[in-house]
Design goal:
Rossmann fold; seven-stranded mixed beta sheet; two-stranded antiparallel sheet; 5 helices; binds adenosine-5'-diphosphate; binds magnesium ion
Length: 195
């Protein structure tokens, strides 16, 4: 029951964000950047993980440019080559060599010299499909960020997550599972939600 509801919600919300026009995407990204660049968490962080937008997700391009411009060190998720369901985080700079992973998402070419252990990151900007009024998060269904953030959730160690989303990704209530990690803060174009 819960699993099929979650799957239906993923479909509904993904269609909504895919339907946003280029203009709406640009406005949304600008509005999120205007909140993002005021946050103390961002100013205090040096090593910041973020992601490249896909599937109608909020465009992180302007945020990444802003981070580079302000001397922050930026990292992107890369699918772990052996450990299924796990992510590695690699340093990302304007000259990074990129390729498409099996989901068709661009990621830095794996090079162990560029891997940053998750516990050394200061902030983790987290993608999502949907979130609810309690800060519960629904992803694409791979559980990647639940695994990545589980240390933070259970032991308070590692980077603090910061969700990024469009307003249309908010739903009233998400049916959650024991492994789901709720987010302490989410930025959308119209609000800074925190719990
Ligand atoms: N910390 C974890 N350890 C082991 N498996 C996990 C963990 N977090 C999530 N999973 C597994 O990942 C799968 C997908 O999780 P789910 O929450 O449905 O995806 P998403 O968060 O991407 O929406 C589930 O089968 C779940 O058992
Ligand atoms: Mg989950």
């Amino acid at each position: 029951m819960t699993q099929s509801t979650r799957q239906q919600l993923r479909q509904q919300v993904r269609l909504k964000r895919q339907a946003l026009t280029l203009h709406q995407q640009e406005q949304a990204s600008k509005a999120v950047l205007a909140r993002f660049n005021q946050l103390q968490d961002v100013h205090h962080a040096q090593h910041i993980a973020i992601y490249l937008s896909n599937d109608g997700e909020l465009d992180t391009g302007p945020l990444i440019e802003w981070l580079w411009h302000h001397g922050k060190t930026v990292y992107l998720p890369v699918l772990h080559p052996f450990s299924k369901g796990h992510l590695l985080f690699l340093h990302y700079h304007p000259d990074s060599r990129m390729h498409c992973n099996r989901y068709g998402i661009a990621e830095p070419v794996l090079d162990v010299r560029h891997v940053k252990p998750v516990h050394e990151l200061d902030l983790m900007c987290t993608p999502m499909v949907a979130f609810d009024e309690q800060g519960q998060r629904l992803g694409m269904g791979g559980g990647y960020y639940d695994r990545t953030l589980s240390q933070w959730h259970h032991h308070g160690t590692g980077p603090r997550p910061l969700g990024l989303a469009h307003d249309c990704q908010q739903v009233r209530h998400l049916p959650c599972e024991a492994w789901d990690v709720p987010l302490p803060a989410i930025i959308t174009p119209s609000a800074y939600h925190h719990w």
